[in-house]
Design brief:
By secondary structure, this protein is mostly helical. It contains ten helices and three strands.
Length: 178
Amino acid sequence: MATRSGTVDPGILIYLLRHKELDVEELDNALNHKSGLLGISGTSSDLRQPLSELPHNPDARLAVDVYVRRIVQTIGAMVATLGGIDALVFTAGVGERAAKIRKWVCEKLKYLGLELDSAANENCHPDADIATAASTARILVIATREDLAIMRETLQLLGSSISRNSVEAKIPAPLLGK
């Protein structure tokens, strides 16, 4: 989380209210606007800043370590629930652009048989498979394409008032899931 706390033990909330004398608005502000990467690193909610400060800022190191640990914990929980993994997908800003984060996450998930191709990871552009051939699951970097999802939903809502074929004819078939 960039500025939000993520998972919090409920006891800490009571402690902050009672012993740090925060009121509800201050607690809300702290949990939603001053926590996460910003709160731990003390510098920025933008992951690029703590990453650039790793060599000389222990708080930046802690923020990145916690960030990676939370990703790994979440993936581990999903893998346990699903009973395995077919593909690990990195997407959005960090997933598409932060090779170091992808590397550190995959290193911690090696026990799942994931094998990252280091060169492919360092040089990838979205819509790439960055796993080695021997990896038991694919490791993919996929562009988010929120605009396409919005367009699809809009077309569905508009129904026949716009010719779906005329709009979709301009979009490559793989992006439409065809």
